[in-house]
Amino acid sequence: MGSRNKNAEDFFANMPNPDAIFQSWWPFIIAGTVGTIYGVRQWVRGPKCIGGSRMKGKTIIVTGANGGIGKEIALQLAHRGGKVIMACRDAVEGKKAADFVRKETENMDVYFMKLDLNSFKSIREFVEKFKKKESNLHLLINNAGVMMCPQEKTEDGFDVQFQTNYLGPFLLTELLLDILKASAPSRIINTTASAHNLGDISFDDINLEKKEYSLGDVYAQSKLAVVLHTFQLAERLKDTKVTCNVVNPGICNTDIYRYLPLKSKKFIRVSFAPFMWFLMKYPEDGAQISIYLSTADELAETSGKHFKDAKEQPLSGKCSDKLLQEQLYRASLKWIEQSKESQIENTKADDVDNSHSKKSQTKSKTDSSMERVQL
């Protein structure tokens, strides 16, 4: 009995100190934690586009290219040798971004051109100037967008979110179709977001003014419209060697969230900074899907598809409703035409008012105003 007790005492006496065992595991715990964080972070960032064709000899338009994803798209396509037109609303930031891309890539074929998607007049002027300067267009990337900005109407009478995200790019694309077809094979890439799943098209109340206004509803509507237009346009462009696809870059840490408390409130921004870093992509990550669709040889004939994280993700429901797609196309043409007619009427009314004091100048003012509207 004494011998057994002695053996038991020796056994427990020779056991390692539990604290020492725990301390020895710390390197493994730390390594495992860091590895897990790194792995999840890389998964969030998504795949990189490392292949694809060079873009030498290709003329490219990227909207909203003064910052965020658009700037990264322009940078990477310029690295591949493309002639890149950075179409931006802010002239100062746009020129600065173009200078940066030229310096980083040593590609001198990078240019800024002013484009304000909140103005149909600006869009028409942009297209006219572009066609005078360029004889080809091989790639149009409609990247520009806004999210949850304060309720406001554009000079054309539409909600800022709806026109910036959808109706402006719609007009831009339609006006550039002739040069895209003439330059074929060419590609059109539109940009949507997961919010399109929550959207509905209110044809009789496109600015959502007849019910309680919701920034989120307007945003979702605009992103659904982008998808519908993409699929309808792809159908129209069959047999033209012009493809049209839509991408979802995912949740990226860019200025598109500048109107949300997450970005606009300093305390919240600082408090959530670690979570934003962990759960959101960098702009360069969000650009990868557009780079892939721009350069992948295997997608040369792919059209009317939705892509996210470097792979096709089919959409169903209202997105694939061909009647809804066609209805939106017809309505969009009507909205733009009505806006144009309204501006012409306003111009005429202004000229009539001015004629009381300046009759001799009425004709010249009317002519110049009409010319601007018809651009």
UniProtKB/TrEMBL annotation:
For molecular function, the Gene Ontology terms on record are:
oxidoreductase activity
Region annotation (Disordered) ranges:
341-375
Give yes or no: UniProt keyword Membrane: yes
Ordered alphabetically, the record's keywords are: Membrane, Oxidoreductase, Transmembrane, Transmembrane helix
Basic and acidic residues bias: where?
Answer: 341-356, 364-375
The record ties this protein, via Pfam families, to: adh_short (PF00106)
Superkingdom of source: Eukaryota
Is Nucleus one of the keywords UniProt gives this record?
A: no
Which residues span the membrane?
A: 20-40
The record, for PANTHER family, names: PHOSPHATIDYLINOSITOL-GLYCAN BIOSYNTHESIS CLASS F PROTEIN, PHOSPHATIDYLINOSITOL-GLYCAN BIOSYNTHESIS CLASS F PROTEIN-RELATED
Protein's name in the database: Retinol dehydrogenase 13
Taxonomy-wise, where does this protein's organism fall, top ranks first? Answer: Eukaryota, Metazoa, Spiralia, Lophotrochozoa, Mollusca
